[in-house]
Each structure stands twice: as structure tokens, then as C-alpha cells.
Amino acid sequence: MSHAFSSRHIGPSPSDQDAMVRRVGYDSLDALMQAAVPSGIRSTSALGLPAAQTETEALSTLRALAERNNPGVSMIGLGYHPTVTPAVIRRNVLEDPSWYTAYTPYQPEISQGRLEALINFQTLISDLTGLPTANSSLLDEGTAVAEAMTLIRRATKGKDQLPIIIDAGLLPQTLAVTHTRADALGIELLEADLSAGVPDVEAAGTIIAYPRADGQVTDPRPAIEAAHAHGGLAVVVADPLALVLLSSPGSLGADVVVGSSQRFGVPMFYGGPHAGFMAVRQGLERHLPGRLVGVSVDSAGRPAYRLALQTREQHIRREKATSNICTAQVLLAVAASMYAVYHGPEGLRQIASEVNASARLLAAGLRSGGVEVAESGFFDTVIASVPGSAAGVVAKARKAGVHLRLVDADHVGVSTNESTTRAHLDAVWDAFGVSGVDEAPESLPADLLRTDEILTHPVFHEHHSETQMLRYLKKLSDRDYALDRGMIPLGSCTMKLNATAEMEPISWPGFADLHPFVPAEDAAGMIELIETLESWLAEVTGYAGVSIQPNAGSQGEFAGLLAIRAYHRSRGDDHRTVCLIPSSAHGTNAASAVMAGMRVVLVKSTDQGEVDLDDLRKQCEAHGDDLAAIMVTYPSTHGVYEHGITELCEIVHAHGGQVYVDGANLNALLGHAQPGVFGGDVSHLNLHKTFCIPHGGGGPGVGPVAVAEHLVPFLPTHPLHPVEGKREGVGAISAAPYGSAGILPIPYAYIAMMGAEGLTDATSVAVLSANYIAKRLESAFPVLYTGDSDLVAHECILDLRPLTKAAGLTIDDVAKRLIDYGFHAPTMSFPVPGTLMVEPTESEDLAELDRFCDAMLAIRAEIDDVVAGKWPAGDNPLVHAPHTMRTLLDWQHAYDIGTGAFPAGSVDDKYWPPVGRIDQAYGDRHLACSCPPVEAFAD
């Protein structure tokens, strides 16, 4: 067997590939790709990447990079704190493929484990914030605040032209991200120090820090009351660990509470990924961005979890979407929720109290040595005044292995955390030249102390031993279907192998324990990794520059459009605000364009699913003076290599517009074509698709933005960027300078181990596998769109509409029936209602591809039996799917148990869904988004 990593990543063996190629009708894989990829865009030379490394070599390289980082003892704070990830959670969630290879829970019947974990998260956030409804996570704290700002705009009718007051005491990165978003949308922000008083102006809302970046815990009630007096909304930005001890913002009158759950057992990861959160008062639920997990009932009337209010999804609402967010930070939200489950309310109270005690002791020691610090009113952070000596104090502490925050020439910030020890305090005192103390007065305001109980649900009281926790995690993961069970053939989502060698480095302390604001020399290995990865991504896409900062595809889209907008403005073309979007595009495109301050104009698609070039010319001529850009996905959203892509680029460029090529389908191009060469000006890339960052049940992801030379000056910047030249400009897109840097070792390892040839082969086999499935199934399910050579790209759309209509069935019936055969359904009804979009990827072997095809053909036969009248329309294996183990106890169907529950013939290895068909409409009518009482599950 070959020792090359690519032979382990690519599923079909060379002999299987030969058989598949022949089935598709070609003599070789090269011949297939020559026919599939249009000659006008095909690369003429190999990618300029280093030679492929073995797994051992790549891990050795990454180990050397990690060892060049100096995490030290971080006491910098600013929203990022060392934590202790319980080993049982690290090993059995963050490092467990049953959790990290799962997909977004659109098929809730096979997602009950992660949905329960997320509803635990929502309950945790709801309890701490004192508000009834929380979402299942956002991308980070900075973007969560930005989302809250737009929520204010949506929810305050008639006030959309009024300014929003924002607390200058917020974290600097949060202010930066929010200003970037506000500028794009034309929202006026009034930045004010709310600890000194609230500006007496009419505003749509106020965003308040609790605690502040300087550590002070000030009473938010005056600002909340002032906001309400003007008819506005009050948003509080809170530290959830502090809320264990402090009064909940909801009890103080807040309408919305946002923040980051990083302190709940998630490593700093050099800035991310971390799960942001948002909770809202009653009446604002339908304005929530992101995902919301709710409780409904299944076909047996038993409680079951599902995603609620799904009509808010971007591909339905498009430019009217409430947000462009398509994923969240599910894996990190699960980890944070399990941290709370493991410790329970008493454990969290003890942790929070010890963090505060360390801060109090620290402050008392500094004061006793004559250093000016706050007497009280702080949770974990103090700012010490050392006129003219701040840099020296920070340098001395760093020499002792402790990172402090250099506020300015006269002030040093110090934050304590759950890892803080007396030895750490001694090192800090020594850096200030003072002696320590053993006692300290209370520091939290007495009138802001929490008096109500938190986390009263039994789930937070039952799993405190490692045995209990291990079994709980195992029980939940067993309820789910992830890549560790079988293929997830989702079109547009590219659910492929996330190799263990790629995943292993993210837990290494040199990467995981690094604070994003340490000096650049203390992150030398990580910065080299990032810059190398950015150069590799530029090479494979054909662009001049890449920024890794966007921490999701949605953020990458936004960053790309901001670059285009800034470019036009730099040329005096402020009026260029029209963004052309094909009617078949993913809805996040339209939502992102609106967020970037652009006006969306649709371009028609042809009957073949391609962009209608005649209509494009018409729209370009109509908007020649105000055309900013076109957003086009390539290969198209319909899974086809469009031959007109170069002409499309020429048409838009001729009218002064820029071409944004959505990189969602880059898995069909890598090594064969480069968007930056065939006409694109900017692309965002989905590293959780093409470059193997796992989906995590709905996040994390990374959405780098790649641009042509003329757009490089307009890539994202950050006020705290380690590279001084990248601190001013377009603005911050994500809270951390490098976004979700902690998971970048995954795509780095993937590219390093695959090399140019491996990446090219992966694309070829992905296209081969999609065409193999299309060829095997075309007689049973028509393939809706193909290219000029009667070939698809890396995915195919199966048209089920005539069949389901004839049988009185729905696309849902087919999707749920696939569960009985042991499969996750392909993408349903996107981009065409009533169809399935199938993407097998390069990682599934021929046996698994055939197993899927056999299942689909068997389902076709079942549909035919319904049409023929063998089974009643209301009592057949499809309408009652999926079949649970419970149904065997009282079988009352027109078909036998074997046909219904064991259609694939497997008894020993069958996956049993824990619940039956879930009633989606019931869940939306009876919105319940926190842990249901135990009694709800009783028979």
C-alpha cells in the first residue's frame, strides 16, 4: 500500500477509479476531466506547491512550528482567558469524530445528540443572562455585538435612521468589528463612556459593557433605563463567567445580551474558534440571527429536538435575510455546554469565585506596594497605574513567563482566570516591584450580586463524575449520524474526510493555549503557519493575496464585498453600489451584499441552470454607471461547469464592475482551474469544505478572502494586529486578527500532505464520483443539469418531482426513508425545490458509493410500488420513515417489519434513529428553546 497521504484521503482505489471511469464512458480519468472542465479556464501548469509530505513529516513540521510559540502564562484578558478543558470533554468532544464530523442538524431525526447538547447551551446562556431565549451560538463576541446592532435596527420600527449608542468600554476588537459593520450599513454609532453618563439623545438603542474592558463592573441600569425612555433597545455585552456571580442583565432590564462562551472550557486558540451567544427577551425571538434549537414532537407524540424558525434561512429570504450567517460554532458551543454540565452550578460558582479572589488578591498586593489600582468594582481585571514604567513592567513579567497587557505608557492591565495560581501572582507582583499579601477585601458591587439560582435543570446536576460524563457524551453521540458512520452526500457542503493527522495538532498547547494579542515574537510559529497557508491558498486560487481573518464563509463573502466597495471608493466611484446576483445563487450572497451596503439586482438563469448572458448584458447596460460587482458561484450552484464564465467576467469588467467568484465549489476546481486566472477579482474560500476543516455539526469554519493585486490594499485589518502595517484600513471583520486561527493547522496539514498532485487528483476523483452516481441513477432519477459533455461537476441534482407527484409523496419522505437505509440525506430542495443535490466527494470509496446508489434505486422501486397501489398512499414505508426501534413493539402497517425497518438487509449494524418523523410545524407554533422537564420524556 502506498505511504502517500493522498492514497488514504482519496477513497476509490486506482482499479476502482478505472471501473468508474469506464462506467461513465471514458477511457481515463484525465480524459474525463478534459471533457468536463472547459478548455478556456483549464490550468496549463501544475500548482507551485512544495512536495507532498508524509503524515509523520507534516506532524513533525507542525510540531516545530508549535514549539516556536511562547504561550507563557497569559494574563492579558481582553475577552480571551486560559481555561481548563476537562480531559473527558477534550477527548470525547473536541477530538471525537462522532462530534466533529457531523453536519448541521437539518435532518433532526438523526441529530438528536448534538441538538440536545445545543439546547443545553441555550439553557445555560438563558439562565446566566436572565432572558428566555438564546440562540445556539454565533461566530465570536465581536460579530455577535454587530449582529445585536442590526437587530436593534430591525426591531425598532420607525427608528432605523436614529443613531445607536455604543459603550467605549467595550473590548477594542468588539468596537472595531461593530464600526466596520455599521459603516457598511450606514448606521451611525455614537461612542461614549457610559460609566461617566449616558448621552441625552434619542437613539434606536444602546450597547453596554458589563464588565468593561478596563475590568470595571458598573451598574448598567441607568443606561438601560435611558434607552427605554427613548423607546430604544438595551443590549448588554457580558462575560458569562462573571454572570455566575453578578445579577443577570435580564433582571436589570436588558432586552438583548451577547458575549463569548470561550471561558467555559474552550482553549484560546490564538483567537478562535469560540462560540459567541445572543439571548433576547420575549418578543424578539424572530429577530435572532443564527440557529435556534427548539423542542417539538415526533410521530409518536414524544418530545424531539429540531432547528426552529427555519424559514429565516438565507436561501429563502435572500436579500431580506436577517443575517448572512449560514453556520455557527456548534462544536465549541457543545464543549462549553458540557463544561457547564460537568461542573454544574456549584462548580461554576466555585470557579468564578476563585477567579475573582485571585483578582482581589492581586489588586490588594499592588495597592499595598503603592501601585494605584481600583479599590473595588471589578471581577477579574485590574488596570495598574505606573507612570512611564508600563513597558518595563510588562517586559519584566514576560521574562518571568507571564504575559500582561500593555495598555499605554502609563498603565498595565492584568486579568486572572481559572488557571491562575499564587506563583503567577507572585511573578506579577515581582514585575511591579511589590510584595504580595494574603487577604483582600470584596471587589464586586453588593447591589449587583446575583441572588437567584442558575442551572436548575437536572442535566446540570447528574453528570459530575467522569464516568457519568463519559456515558452521557457517548449516549448523545450514539443518537447522531456523522461521517464516522457513513457517507453524508450533501451537495454544496463537501462532507469529506477530516484526517486524524490533520486534527491532532489543534490540541497541542503551542497552538491551543496561545493568546491572540501576545507579541508577534511569541507567536512566531503560528504566524509563519498562517502566512505560509495564505501563500498556498493564493497559489491554488491564482490570486495575489489572501486574508485568513474571516472566521466563516459568510464573513469571507462580507470581506470580499467590502474590498470591492473600498476599491471603488478609492477611485471616487462611491455611486457603484449595485451587486448582480444570479437567481440560482446561495442566499448568503444576497444577504452579504446588503450587509456591505449594496443593492441586489437579480440575473436570470437559463433552462440549463447557467447564468443567462443575454440578461447579464441587459442588466450591465442598465446599471453601467452604478455597477459594483457580480457574485457568481463556479462551478454553478447547479453543479455545472459553465462555459460562459470567462465571457461573464469580460462583460462585467467592461462595465466597470468587479467579479466575485464564490469559492463554495472550489473542490471541483483545485489543480484544474484558478478563479484568479480565469477572470475573478475576489473569492472567498470555505476551508471546512475544500480544505478539510470538519463541519462540527454546524461550525467551526474559516472563510478566507482571496483577491487580485489591485484589491490587496483593501483586505481586512485589525487594530490589535501583530503586524503593524495591518492595523488600519478597511477594518476588522472578526474579533481576532487571524480569526479562527486555532484550526488552521488542519488545512495546513492537508495541503502539506497532499501536495499539488494530490490536490489535483482529489478534484478529479470528486468529479468522477459525482458523475458515477449520476450515471448509475439517471435511469431512475433524471439528472437535472449537465454541461456540454453531458457531465456534471462535483455534484449532481436528481429530479424527484415527477415521481413524488405521481405517488403523492414529498421530498421529505425520500430523505427520511434514506435514514432507514443507513444514510444521511443529500441536500434537499436546493437550489431547486423537490430535488436532491448529491455530492459524494473524493473520500468515499466505491463500495460506499454503490451502497448509496443501491439504496436510491431501492427507494425508486418503493415509489413505483406506491404508484402501482401495492401500498396505500397513507401507509407505506416512505411516509412513515424513519422507523424507530419503538415502532417494532406495536407494528400496525400494511407492509412487513423487514421492509419497513430493515430495507438494506442489515440487522447487526443498523443505525436506529432515536425519534420518529418530527413535526416541524408544531415546533414553530409551540416555540420552546430550553431544556424540557424530565417529565416530558415519560411514557
Automatic annotation (TrEMBL):
Keywords: Oxidoreductase, Pyridoxal phosphate. It is an enzyme of class 1 (oxidoreductase). Its cofactor is pyridoxal 5'-phosphate. The keyword Signal does not apply. The keyword Oxidoreductase applies. Its EC number is 1.4.4.2. The modification N6-(pyridoxal phosphate)lysine is found at residue 689. One of its GO terms (biological process) is glycine decarboxylation via glycine cleavage system. It catalyses: N(6)-[(R)-lipoyl]-L-lysyl-[glycine-cleavage complex H protein] + glycine + H(+) = N(6)-[(R)-S(8)-aminomethyldihydrolipoyl]-L-lysyl-[glycine-cleavage complex H protein] + CO2. It comes from the Bacteria. GO terms for molecular function: glycine binding; glycine dehydrogenase (decarboxylating) activity; pyridoxal phosphate binding. One of its GO terms (cellular component) is cytosol. Signal peptide: none annotated. CDD domains: GDC-P. Pfam families: GcvP2_C (PF21478), GDC-P (PF02347). InterPro entries: GcvP (IPR003437), GDC-P_C (IPR049316), GDC-P_N (IPR049315), GDC_P (IPR020581), PyrdxlP-dep_Trfase (IPR015424), PyrdxlP-dep_Trfase_major (IPR015421), PyrdxlP-dep_Trfase_small (IPR015422). Belongs to the GcvP family. PANTHER family: GLYCINE DEHYDROGENASE (DECARBOXYLATING), MITOCHONDRIAL (PTHR11773:SF1), GLYCINE DEHYDROGENASE, DECARBOXYLATING (PTHR11773). The glycine cleavage system is composed of four proteins: P, T, L and H. The glycine cleavage system catalyzes the degradation of glycine. The P protein binds the alpha-amino group of glycine through its pyridoxal phosphate cofactor; CO(2) is released and the remaining methylamine moiety is then transferred to the lipoamide cofactor of the H protein. This is Glycine dehydrogenase (decarboxylating). It comes from Aeromicrobium chenweiae.
